[in-house]
Amino acid sequence: MAKMKIKAKEKNGVVKVKAMFRSLMADKEEAEKKKIKAEYITHILGKANGKVVFEATTSGFMSENPLIKFSFTGAKKGDELEFVLTDNHGKTKTGKKKIK
Amino acid sequence: MERRKFLNLGLVAAAAVLAPMTNLNAVNFRETKPKAWEIEKSADAIKEMFGAGELKTTDKIKFTAPKLAENGGSIPISLSTDLDIETIALFQDANPRAATVVFSVPEGQKVDYSFRIKMRQTAVVTIVAKAKDGTLYTLAKEIDVSIGGCGG
Protein backbone atom coordinates (compact mmCIF):
# COMPACT_ATOMS: atom_id res chain seq x y z
CA MET A 1 0.00 0.00 0.00
CA ALA A 2 0.77 3.53 0.48
CA LYS A 3 4.20 4.98 0.22
CA MET A 4 4.93 8.21 2.02
CA LYS A 5 7.05 11.30 1.76
CA ILE A 6 7.81 13.19 4.92
CA LYS A 7 9.48 16.55 5.48
CA ALA A 8 10.04 17.88 8.97
CA LYS A 9 11.88 21.04 9.97
CA GLU A 10 12.49 22.46 13.43
CA LYS A 11 12.68 26.19 14.11
CA ASN A 12 12.49 27.82 17.55
CA GLY A 13 11.16 24.64 19.12
CA VAL A 14 8.31 24.22 16.66
CA VAL A 15 8.54 21.38 14.18
CA LYS A 16 6.74 21.97 10.91
CA VAL A 17 5.77 18.84 9.08
CA LYS A 18 4.62 18.22 5.54
CA ALA A 19 3.65 14.67 4.81
CA MET A 20 2.28 13.08 1.67
CA PHE A 21 0.84 9.61 1.72
CA ARG A 22 0.34 7.84 -1.55
CA SER A 23 -3.11 6.33 -1.64
CA LEU A 24 -6.00 6.25 -4.11
CA MET A 25 -8.39 7.29 -1.34
CA ALA A 26 -11.19 5.62 -3.28
CA ASP A 27 -14.37 5.11 -1.26
CA LYS A 28 -17.07 2.60 -2.20
CA GLU A 29 -18.86 4.68 -4.85
CA GLU A 30 -15.72 5.97 -6.47
CA ALA A 31 -14.18 2.52 -6.60
CA GLU A 32 -17.27 1.15 -8.32
CA LYS A 33 -17.12 3.82 -10.97
CA LYS A 34 -13.45 3.26 -11.66
CA LYS A 35 -13.88 -0.52 -11.32
CA ILE A 36 -11.16 -0.86 -8.72
CA LYS A 37 -11.10 -2.05 -5.15
CA ALA A 38 -12.00 0.47 -2.50
CA GLU A 39 -8.80 1.60 -0.87
CA TYR A 40 -8.29 4.46 1.53
CA ILE A 41 -6.35 5.36 4.62
CA THR A 42 -8.46 5.22 7.76
CA HIS A 43 -6.00 6.22 10.44
CA ILE A 44 -2.78 8.22 10.56
CA LEU A 45 -0.63 8.34 13.68
CA GLY A 46 2.50 10.46 14.02
CA LYS A 47 4.97 9.90 16.83
CA ALA A 48 8.18 11.59 17.96
CA ASN A 49 10.26 10.53 20.97
CA GLY A 50 7.64 7.91 21.82
CA LYS A 51 4.91 10.55 22.14
CA VAL A 52 1.92 10.90 19.88
CA VAL A 53 2.15 14.26 18.11
CA PHE A 54 -0.42 13.82 15.36
CA GLU A 55 -3.49 11.69 15.02
CA ALA A 56 -6.25 11.64 12.44
CA THR A 57 -9.03 9.25 11.57
CA THR A 58 -9.80 9.76 7.89
CA SER A 59 -12.36 8.65 5.34
CA GLY A 60 -12.28 8.17 1.58
CA PHE A 61 -13.29 11.78 1.11
CA MET A 62 -9.84 13.13 1.67
CA SER A 63 -8.15 13.90 -1.64
CA GLU A 64 -6.14 11.35 -3.53
CA ASN A 65 -2.56 11.17 -2.20
CA PRO A 66 -3.42 13.16 0.92
CA LEU A 67 -1.03 15.95 1.75
CA ILE A 68 -1.14 17.01 5.36
CA LYS A 69 0.65 19.93 6.96
CA PHE A 70 0.85 20.43 10.69
CA SER A 71 3.22 21.64 13.38
CA PHE A 72 4.04 20.38 16.84
CA THR A 73 6.32 21.12 19.76
CA GLY A 74 8.45 18.86 21.90
CA ALA A 75 11.09 17.57 19.49
CA LYS A 76 14.39 18.90 18.18
CA LYS A 77 16.75 18.50 15.25
CA GLY A 78 17.91 14.95 14.74
CA ASP A 79 14.92 13.37 16.48
CA GLU A 80 12.99 10.82 14.55
CA LEU A 81 9.41 11.30 13.39
CA GLU A 82 7.45 8.15 12.73
CA PHE A 83 4.14 7.70 10.93
CA VAL A 84 1.88 4.67 11.14
CA LEU A 85 -0.85 4.38 8.50
CA THR A 86 -3.78 2.00 8.62
CA ASP A 87 -5.96 1.38 5.56
CA ASN A 88 -9.49 0.06 5.16
CA HIS A 89 -8.20 -3.50 4.78
CA GLY A 90 -6.47 -3.27 8.14
CA LYS A 91 -2.97 -3.17 6.68
CA THR A 92 -0.45 -0.92 8.34
CA LYS A 93 2.62 0.84 7.03
CA THR A 94 5.32 2.66 8.94
CA GLY A 95 7.58 5.46 7.73
CA LYS A 96 10.36 7.30 9.52
CA LYS A 97 12.18 10.53 8.94
CA LYS A 98 14.74 12.55 10.87
CA ILE A 99 13.76 16.08 11.79
CA LYS A 100 15.99 18.65 10.11
CA MET B 1 15.08 -27.86 17.21
CA GLU B 2 14.44 -27.26 20.87
CA ARG B 3 16.29 -23.98 20.75
CA ARG B 4 14.47 -22.78 17.65
CA LYS B 5 11.12 -23.50 19.18
CA PHE B 6 12.09 -21.62 22.27
CA LEU B 7 13.17 -18.57 20.24
CA ASN B 8 9.89 -18.59 18.32
CA LEU B 9 7.95 -18.62 21.54
CA GLY B 10 9.88 -15.59 22.69
CA LEU B 11 9.07 -13.71 19.49
CA VAL B 12 5.37 -14.43 19.78
CA ALA B 13 5.37 -13.21 23.37
CA ALA B 14 7.24 -10.04 22.42
CA ALA B 15 4.79 -9.33 19.62
CA ALA B 16 1.85 -9.84 21.96
CA VAL B 17 3.31 -7.34 24.41
CA LEU B 18 4.15 -4.81 21.70
CA ALA B 19 0.81 -4.90 19.87
CA PRO B 20 -1.29 -3.07 22.48
CA MET B 21 1.59 -0.66 23.12
CA THR B 22 1.31 0.89 19.66
CA ASN B 23 -2.30 1.82 20.40
CA LEU B 24 -1.33 3.62 23.58
CA ASN B 25 -3.19 6.92 24.05
CA ALA B 26 -4.46 6.72 20.48
CA VAL B 27 -8.13 6.86 19.56
CA ASN B 28 -9.20 5.36 16.29
CA PHE B 29 -12.64 6.84 15.75
CA ARG B 30 -13.47 4.17 13.24
CA GLU B 31 -13.34 1.62 16.02
CA THR B 32 -14.93 3.65 18.81
CA LYS B 33 -17.66 5.28 16.71
CA PRO B 34 -18.19 3.02 13.69
CA LYS B 35 -21.77 4.21 13.09
CA ALA B 36 -20.86 7.87 12.72
CA TRP B 37 -18.89 7.12 9.55
CA GLU B 38 -21.90 5.73 7.69
CA ILE B 39 -24.30 8.65 8.16
CA GLU B 40 -25.19 10.86 5.20
CA LYS B 41 -26.27 14.09 6.89
CA SER B 42 -23.75 16.21 8.77
CA ALA B 43 -26.11 17.03 11.64
CA ASP B 44 -26.84 13.38 12.39
CA ALA B 45 -23.20 12.39 12.06
CA ILE B 46 -22.18 15.13 14.49
CA LYS B 47 -24.75 13.89 17.00
CA GLU B 48 -23.44 10.34 16.69
CA MET B 49 -19.81 11.41 17.00
CA PHE B 50 -20.02 14.04 19.74
CA GLY B 51 -23.32 13.36 21.46
CA ALA B 52 -26.34 15.66 21.54
CA GLY B 53 -24.62 18.51 23.40
CA GLU B 54 -25.19 22.15 22.55
CA LEU B 55 -23.07 23.48 19.72
CA LYS B 56 -21.59 26.94 20.24
CA THR B 57 -20.80 29.04 17.21
CA THR B 58 -17.34 30.51 17.48
CA ASP B 59 -15.00 32.80 15.59
CA LYS B 60 -11.94 31.72 17.53
CA ILE B 61 -11.22 28.87 15.18
CA LYS B 62 -9.60 29.91 11.94
CA PHE B 63 -11.07 27.89 9.10
CA THR B 64 -9.75 28.70 5.66
CA ALA B 65 -11.35 27.31 2.54
CA PRO B 66 -11.91 28.66 -0.94
CA LYS B 67 -15.33 30.18 -1.65
CA LEU B 68 -15.28 28.71 -5.10
CA ALA B 69 -13.48 25.44 -5.72
CA GLU B 70 -12.70 24.79 -9.35
CA ASN B 71 -11.70 21.22 -8.76
CA GLY B 72 -13.90 19.30 -6.35
CA GLY B 73 -11.30 16.54 -6.20
CA SER B 74 -8.89 18.63 -4.22
CA ILE B 75 -10.15 21.43 -2.00
CA PRO B 76 -7.52 22.90 0.31
CA ILE B 77 -8.70 23.38 3.88
CA SER B 78 -6.78 24.72 6.82
CA LEU B 79 -7.71 24.83 10.47
CA SER B 80 -5.99 26.57 13.33
CA THR B 81 -6.91 27.84 16.78
CA ASP B 82 -5.42 28.78 20.12
CA LEU B 83 -8.25 27.16 22.08
CA ASP B 84 -7.53 24.01 24.07
CA ILE B 85 -9.07 21.48 21.73
CA GLU B 86 -9.27 17.74 22.25
CA THR B 87 -10.90 16.68 18.99
CA ILE B 88 -11.63 18.56 15.80
CA ALA B 89 -13.66 17.10 12.97
CA LEU B 90 -14.84 18.03 9.50
CA PHE B 91 -18.22 17.07 8.04
CA GLN B 92 -19.77 17.88 4.67
CA ASP B 93 -23.11 17.24 2.98
CA ALA B 94 -21.82 16.70 -0.55
CA ASN B 95 -20.73 13.07 -0.35
CA PRO B 96 -22.57 9.83 0.45
CA ARG B 97 -21.12 9.87 3.96
CA ALA B 98 -20.70 13.07 5.97
CA ALA B 99 -17.69 12.40 8.20
CA THR B 100 -14.48 13.28 6.40
CA VAL B 101 -11.73 13.58 8.95
CA VAL B 102 -11.37 13.64 12.72
CA PHE B 103 -8.16 14.88 14.30
CA SER B 104 -7.44 13.96 17.89
CA VAL B 105 -5.17 16.66 19.18
CA PRO B 106 -2.44 15.16 21.38
CA GLU B 107 -1.85 16.58 24.85
CA GLY B 108 -0.05 19.90 24.76
CA GLN B 109 -0.27 20.40 21.00
CA LYS B 110 -2.08 23.16 19.15
CA VAL B 111 -4.49 22.82 16.27
CA ASP B 112 -2.72 23.75 13.05
CA TYR B 113 -3.67 21.48 10.19
CA SER B 114 -3.82 21.82 6.42
CA PHE B 115 -5.18 19.13 4.18
CA ARG B 116 -7.34 18.58 1.11
CA ILE B 117 -10.77 17.06 0.70
CA LYS B 118 -13.04 15.86 -2.08
CA MET B 119 -16.57 17.14 -2.68
CA ARG B 120 -19.09 16.06 -5.26
CA GLN B 121 -21.16 19.22 -5.35
CA THR B 122 -21.68 22.59 -3.70
CA ALA B 123 -22.41 22.05 -0.02
CA VAL B 124 -21.90 23.28 3.49
CA VAL B 125 -18.78 22.15 5.33
CA THR B 126 -19.08 22.02 9.11
CA ILE B 127 -16.25 22.00 11.60
CA VAL B 128 -16.94 20.71 15.09
CA ALA B 129 -14.34 21.02 17.81
CA LYS B 130 -14.52 19.58 21.28
CA ALA B 131 -12.62 21.58 23.88
CA LYS B 132 -10.85 20.00 26.84
CA ASP B 133 -13.64 21.25 29.14
CA GLY B 134 -16.27 19.51 27.02
CA THR B 135 -17.66 22.56 25.19
CA LEU B 136 -18.55 21.90 21.58
CA TYR B 137 -17.65 24.64 19.11
CA THR B 138 -18.92 24.76 15.58
CA LEU B 139 -18.27 26.69 12.43
CA ALA B 140 -19.67 26.26 8.94
CA LYS B 141 -18.90 27.50 5.46
CA GLU B 142 -20.43 26.89 2.10
CA ILE B 143 -18.05 25.87 -0.63
CA ASP B 144 -19.05 26.23 -4.27
CA VAL B 145 -17.83 23.35 -6.37
CA SER B 146 -17.80 23.75 -10.11
CA ILE B 147 -16.50 20.31 -11.08
CA GLY B 148 -17.30 17.52 -8.65
CA GLY B 149 -14.61 15.28 -7.27
CA CYS B 150 -15.05 11.74 -6.04
CA GLY B 151 -15.44 10.47 -9.59
CA GLY B 152 -18.81 12.23 -9.63
For CATH, the homologous superfamily of chain B is named as SoxY domain
State the CATH topology of chain B.
Immunoglobulin-like
Radius of gyration of chain A using CA atoms only? 14 Å
Report the mean per-residue pLDDT of chain B as an integer: 77
Tag the structure with descriptive keywords.
heterodimer, A: 100 residues, three-stranded antiparallel β-sheet, 7 strands, 7% helix, B: 152 residues, Immunoglobulin-like, 3 helices, 9 strands
Give a concise summary.
Chain A has about 100 residues and is mostly beta strands.
Describe this structure in words.
The complex is a heterodimer of chains A (100) and B (152). Chain A is mainly beta and 100 residues long. Chain A has one domain: Immunoglobulins (Immunoglobulin-like, Sandwich), CATH 2.60.40.10. Chain A contains one helix and seven strands; from the N terminus they run E-E-H-E-E-E-E-E. Chain A has one helix spanning 28-34, and strands at 4-11, 14-21, 41-48, 51-58, 67-73, 80-87, 92-98. In chain A, the strands form two sheets. Chain A has a four-stranded antiparallel sheet with strand order 4-3-6-7, with no helix packed on it. A three-stranded antiparallel sheet of chain A has the order 1-2-5, with no helix packed on it. The relative contact order of chain A is 0.31. Chain B has 152 residues and is α+β, with helices and mostly antiparallel strands. Chain B has one domain: Immunoglobulin-like. Chain B has three helices and nine strands. Chain B has helices at 2-22, 29-32, 42-50, and strands at 55-57, 61-64, 68-71, 75-81, 85-92, 99-104, 111-117, 123-131, 136-147. In chain B, strand 8 and strand 9 form a beta hairpin. The longest helix of chain B has 21 residues, at 2-22. Chain B is globular, with a radius of gyration of 20 Å. Mean pLDDT of chain B is 77; it is low at 17-24. The A-B interface holds A 25-30, 33-34, 42-43, 45, 51-59, 61-64, 66-74, 84, 86 and B 22, 24-30, 37, 73-75, 78, 92, 95-97, 99-106, 108-110, 112-119, 149-152. Strand 5 of chain A pairs antiparallel with strand 7 (111-117) of chain B.
